[in-house]
């Protein structure tokens, strides 16, 4: 579990790719930062420090200070994979972030990207 190549890559490199994906579609790095902080519990200052460090992508998720309990409301398909069906817990965390960035890139408003139980009731 969690031994995929992507988890050994530098966090800053992978995060830069996610930001690039969003920026190509007219979204801002600040929006990706907000989604990442919402997901993991890192503050903006902590996130900035991690981007300047040699932390791995896997450790970014392993050391998340307070994973948002509402992240389980993130559902759907990203890169051909249904997020809620990913069995590896670490990969599921990474897919949550992929899905949030994917939704930003598709133009979804931030208030809908960041899930809340009240808004996401069936």
Summarize the structure.
This protein is 50% helix and 3% strand. It has helices at 11-24, 29-40, 44-51, 57-62, 89-105, 110-113, and strands spanning 77-78, 81-82.
Q: How would you describe the oligomerization state of the chains in this entry?
A: single chain
The geometry reads as: globular
Estimated helix fraction: 40-55%
Largest sheet: 2 strands, antiparallel
Strand/helix succession: HHHHEEHH
List low-pLDDT spans.
none
Class by alpha and beta content: mainly alpha
Query: What count of helical segments does DSSP give?
Result: 6
Strand content: under 5%
Trace the largest sheet across and list its strands: 1-2
Q: Give the strand tally.
A: 2
Tell me, rounded to a whole number, the average pLDDT: 93
Rounded radius of gyration (Å) = 13 Å
Report how far the terminal alpha carbons are from each other. 32 Å
Description:
The structure is a single chain. This protein is mainly alpha-helical. 50% of the residues lie in helices and 3% in strands. It has helices spanning 11-24, 29-40, 44-51, 57-62, 89-105, 110-113; strands at residues 77-78, 81-82. A two-stranded antiparallel sheet has the order 1-2. Helix 1 (11-24) runs parallel beside helix 5. The longest helix has 17 residues, at 89-105. The model has no long low-confidence stretch (mean pLDDT 93).
